[in-house]
Specification:
With 324 residues, this protein is of the alpha/beta class. It has 2 domains: 27-121 and 248-318, D-Maltodextrin-Binding Protein, domain 2, CATH 3.40.190.150; 123-239, Periplasmic binding protein-like II (D-Maltodextrin-Binding Protein, domain 2). Helix content is 45%, strand content 19%. It has helices at residues 2-22, 41-57, 72-79, 93-102, 137-146, 161-173, 185-193, 204-212, 236-239, 260-275, 277-285, 298-318, and strands at 30-34, 61-65, 87-92, 113-129, 152-155, 178-181, 199-203, 216-221, 247-255. Strands 1, 2, 3, 4, 5, 6, 7, 8 and 9 form a 9-stranded mixed sheet that branches. Helix 2 (41-57) packs across helix 10 and helix 4 (93-102) packs parallel to helix 12. 42% of the residues are buried.
Length: 324
């Protein structure tokens, strides 16, 4: 009887320990869904961050590129995942703000996700293929006005932030031209180099090497200050088109209801990655801005996302900016 009792106690203790161990996070690989193809600025940022986060979390992090639908396919995949911390979404201004106003979705871009951390953002570069004769932004505006019926602008999808940037430019210039949507920055980059379209509002990071190598021409950055990684490119204010400010922020999200300890560990790993001096410099060199440390909490991201919805949704509805 005593032996049986002792065995029962040992079994119970073993089960309790096994249950506790099973709850330790993370205990298996984590998937990070990136809503764009490999090779773009968002994918590049994800791969840099993941390299450092793997060491902090002591688990592999697998990047899953899910392109299409201006990020909606990826976001839909993430929202359906188990809320256990093993599926994360590298969302952004498009996937978790704009798309809620421009697309009919089966989920809520705000309320069906838990925020983890605000990540580096990038303003746009206004660029053109080298065959465009304009040498500065004022000359570009004059050329576009004179050739509006022939001009085309590449975007990473209808109703994307790049498309919104183009709409802003059209309203400011007072002309209309054709938009050519792509599934991501990498295929758009290839077609721009091939001369398939004329201009683009593009992510500063992935296109900077092309600018530096004189493969395309940059006219201005859509920000109040020049880029640390490209200080020779003027701001829109300096180039003669003041106030055209637009930047795409990135952020890490998880499905609603993910355990708080998992959110906290993911947050700490991402914050540590952005604080690493070598990685920090690489991010700056890509033309991205890193948010201040006090803006890197889940609470700060939640408040920021809410403010972005309140800012952009009325503008989108006022211009009837809808996906086709």
């Amino acid at each position: 009887m005593r032996a049986r009792l002792f065995a029962a106690v040992l079994t119970a203790m073993s089960l309790a320990c096994g249950s506790a161990a099973a709850q330790v996070y993370p205990s298996r690989p984590i998937t990070m869904i990136v809503p764009y193809p490999a090779g773009g600025v968002t994918d590049g940022l994800a791969r840099m961050l993941v390299e450092h986060m793997r060491s902090s979390l002591k688990q592999p992090i697998i990047i899953e590129n899910v392109s299409g639908g201006v990020g909606n396919i990826a976001t839909g995949r993430a929202v359906r995942a188990a809320a256990d911390g093993y599926t994360t979404l590298l969302g952004n201004m498009e996937t978790n703000v704009l798309n809620g106003a421009t697309h009919t979705l089966t989920y809520d871009v705000v309320n069906d996700f838990d925020p983890v951390i605000l990540m580096p953002s990038y303003p746009f570069l206004i660029v053109s293929k080298n065959a465009v004769p304009a040498k500065d932004l004022k000359e570009l505006v004059a050329w576009v006005k004179a050739n509006a019926d022939k001009v085309s602008q590449g975007t990473v999808g209808t109703a994307s932030a790049q498309h919104l940037c183009g709409i802003y430019l059209q309203q400011t210039i007072g002309a209309r031209w054709q938009f050519v949507p792509y599934r991501g920055g990498a295929p758009a980059m290839q077609d721009m180099l091939a001369g398939q379209f004329d201009l683009m509002c593009t992510a500063s990071g992935s296109f900077l090497p092309l600018v530096r190598n004189n493969q395309i021409r940059a006219y201005a950055v859509t920000a109040k200050t020049r880029l640390g990684g490209a200080p020779d490119i003027p701001t829109v204010d300096e180039a003669g088109m003041p106030g055209i400010y637009l930047a795409v922020w990135n952020a890490l999200f998880v499905p609603k209801g993910t355990p708080k300890d998992a959110v906290a560990k993911l947050n700490a790993a991402a914050a540590d990655a952005m604080a690493d001096p070598a990685l920090h410099q690489k991010i700056i060199d890509m033309g991205l801005d890193i948010p201040p440390r006090d803006q890197q909490t889940p609470e700060a991201l939640a408040a920021f996302q809410k403010a972005e919805v309140e800012k952009w949704w009325p503008i989108i509805k006022a211009v009837n900016f809808k996906a086709e």
